[in-house]
Design goal:
This protein is globular. It is α+β, with helices and mostly antiparallel strands and 147 residues long. The chain has a 4-stranded mixed sheet with strand order 3-4-5-6, with helices on both faces. Strands 1-2 form a two-stranded antiparallel sheet. Strand 4 and strand 5 form a beta hairpin. The chain has one domain.
Length: 147
Amino acid sequence: MSHPTVDRWLDVLEPLYAIFRLPPLGEPRSPAVRKAQKHDHVDWTVVDEPAARFGNLVASHLLKWAQHHRGTQWRAVELRYFRDVDGLEVDFVLTDPGKGIAFVDCKRDDAEVPSPLRYVRRRCADVPAWQISAMGRRTSRRPTAFA
């Protein structure tokens, strides 16, 4: 299937509230990164693979949170994702104009904090960064998690 055909289908599905798109954070130098948008399903239960379903569930709730804040507090909160030119990616970024609110990365199981999350944490030390897991058993908050 060609890219224009896929784009047209996505353009049809979005206004029908079947999917929503997430643009990358900022204006990357690479046109390929700038144009790459992720999409998630509004109804996350249609996703078969468990890890992807969990990520879609989180995306749906973060989108609702962002829309709530746009509607009630006159803020321009947006849900995006982070990807740099080297391919480092964090699942979600909540932004307010000119500043980040939070970075969120989803994992199915407990896992070590991934290097992309560590990277954005070093670059944006004042912005909270969370890793959440669907099947995780650890509930501790360790200040050294991002060391």
